[in-house]
Each structure stands twice: as structure tokens, then as C-alpha cells.
Amino acid sequence: MLYCEISDKLSQKMESTLYSVLFAMIDAYFDEENEYLEAIYMLNENTSQESIEKFESVEIFKNKVSELEKANASANGKINDLEKANASANGIISGLEAEIKHLKAQLNKSK
User: Fold this and answer.
1) DSSP class of 32
2) Which residues contact 12 (CB under 8 A, 6 or more apart)?
3) pTM for the full model?
4) How far is CA 72 from the centre of its chain?
5) Is residue 23 a contact partner of residue 40, using CB atoms and an 8 Å limit?
6) Over the stretch 2-43, which tens digit does the pLDDT of each residue have?
7) What's the average model confidence in pLDDT over 72-93?
8) What is the rounded distance in angstroms from the CA atom of residue 61 to the CA atom of residue 76?
9) CA–CA distance from 80 to each of 76, 77, 83, 86 (Å)?
């Protein structure tokens, strides 16, 4: 792998960038777990711990963002459901208020 030959000559920024790109490519390409693990092991062996930790912290952050986006979408769905229920309840209340007004008017006529 060319990366193994040049990894010690790369700047920290370039190493981190290449590491994340190669990691994504390995993840997308290898379906067989042993081949995947072997490729990741080879990549990790030739990458500084700093670049690996930076990548992992970014991945953790991305996962948290994704989880929050899903939770937000779910909450928005529930809010929409509650707004519909509220509108329905307000319609029922308005109908009952009109009925009460009508019954009061009938009661006052009968007096």
C-alpha cells in the first residue's frame, strides 16, 4: 500500500486527511470481516496515534450529531401530532361552548 511507504513523510494534517479517506474506502470496499480488519490494522500500524484519535473523536461527534438529528425529527413529529390533537380539542371546545351558549339562551327564554 502506497500509504505505508509515505505515511512517515506526511504532515499531521495530510496524514489525518488520508487516514479518514482510506478508512472510509476500506469500510466501503471490504465485505469480508477478516480482510476488513487486516486492512484497518495495516492502516492503523502506519498512522500516528494522534491522527487515529482525531479521526475517532470526529466519528464520535458525527454519531452524536446523527443521533440528535434523529431525536429532533422524532420530537418534531410528536409536536406535530400534539398540535393536531390540540387543534381538534379546540374545535371540540368551541362546539361545546356554542352548545352551552345555545342552552343558556333556551333556558333564559323559558323563564
Assistant:
1) S
2) 48, 50, 51
3) 0.55
4) 8
5) yes
6) 777 787 888 889 888 888 999 999 999 999 999 999 999 999
7) 94
8) 22
9) 6, 5, 5, 10
